[in-house]
Automatic annotation (TrEMBL):
InterPro entries noted in UniProt: PhoU-like_sf, Put_Phosphate_transp_reg, UPF0111_domain
Signal peptide limits: none
Name of protein: DUF47 family protein
Gene3D superfamilies, A to Z: Phosphate transport system protein phou homolog 2, domain 2
Family: Belongs to the UPF0111 family.
Length: 206
């Protein structure tokens, strides 16, 4: 750890933990969507929208703190990048739920539940990791596992695309479902970006 003579603003740690906890809440709403009938999905989408707004609030709080703090616990650009990537995850998850409702999808294709399970596990790991930024310890396994999960998500996504294009679905249904599974894949990519940013921070601070 590099030695500093100037005190650093430490509230960033709590703000990142709050943002990650909100991401975990969003992943649980995604899982809830899987077992919901179409009639109850609108209510789940409303709760996901509220969670996305809470994520925006957390991101804005970090940016406000960044703009009003002279000495930060680690590089300013990394603080900005980490906050933005956490916000991206919430945006993608909210978009996926919204699309399911807007497109009035009766049944999601087999394999989407695997995508959502991967996102749920990545969210758990991310929420567990954020408090460790304070000490910069016990984070190595976090980014390794999230990268592994993202590779798993890639494989699931490719299988889903192959299934969608095998002739089972009408063309318009393929377009709708592909947009949903693509957005879920973007959420997995965003989790990896968060993990990579954390790795960058730890390497710089070591």
């Amino acid at each position: 750890m590099r030695f500093r003579l100037t005190p650093r603003e430490t509230s960033f740690y709590e703000l990142f933990a709050t943002a990650a906890d909100n991401v975990l809440s969003g992943s649980k709403l995604l899982m809830e969507l899987l077992g919901a009938d179409p009639a109850t999905r609108v209510e789940i989408a409303d709760r996901m929208r509220a969670a996305e707004h809470a994520g925006d609030d957390a991101t804005h709080a970090i940016f406000h703190q960044l703009n009003s703090t002279f000495v930060t616990p680690f590089d300013r650009e990394d603080i900005y990048r980490l906050a933005a990537r956490l916000d991206d995850i919430m945006d993608f998850m909210e978009e996926a739920v919204d699309l399911v409702v807007l497109y009035e999808i009766d049944e999601l294709p087999k394999g989407v539940e695997q995508q959502i399970e991967v996102l749920g596990r990545a969210a758990e790991l991310t929420a567990e990791a954020m408090p460790n930024l304070r000490s910069m310890r016990n984070l190595n396994e976090y980014w390794i596992e999230v990268n592994r999960l993202e590779n798993q998500a890639d494989q699931i996504h490719r299988k889903l695309l192959a299934h969608l294009f095998n002739g089972t679905y009408e063309a318009i249904e393929v377009m709708k479902l592909k947009q949903i599974v693509d957005v879920l894949e973007e959420a997995a990519d965003a989790f990896e970006s968060v993990a990579n940013t954390v790795e960058t921070i730890v390497v710089k601070e070591s």
